[in-house]
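Hello,

Our lab assistant flagged a job as stuck in the queue for most of the afternoon. It eventually completed. Since we weren't sure the result was trustworthy after the delay, we are filing this so someone can double-check. Below is the sequence as submitted and the structure that was eventually returned. Let us know if re-running is recommended.
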Amino acid sequence: MFVALGEDALDTLKKSLSVKPKAAKILHAELAVGALARLMKDPKAAEAAKKAFKEKGSDKATLTIEAAKTLEVKLSVKTQVLTFASLMDKAKEDADKKDE
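-- returned structure --
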């Protein structure tokens, strides 16, 4: 549903509806996982982040959503983010073993 108010409202609607659809980014978000790790309650997160993210920018994860004829969702992460996830998983497994 389209609504336009004011002077030249009808002309504005006609122009808007005559525009051809084209690909557009709906969302582009970047996250620094290392910064997020410092906010986590788990004390092992900061330790894992320090081991995994030795270079500046190595903690980046990017989410992009584009719309064209199809909806395209892309998630890309640096290899070090996967290393961080692996270290966190190992820390959780070790903690679970201690609890047994």
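-- support follow-up --
The delay was a queue issue, not a problem with the job. The result is valid. The chain has a mean pLDDT of 88. The chain has one domain: 21-99.
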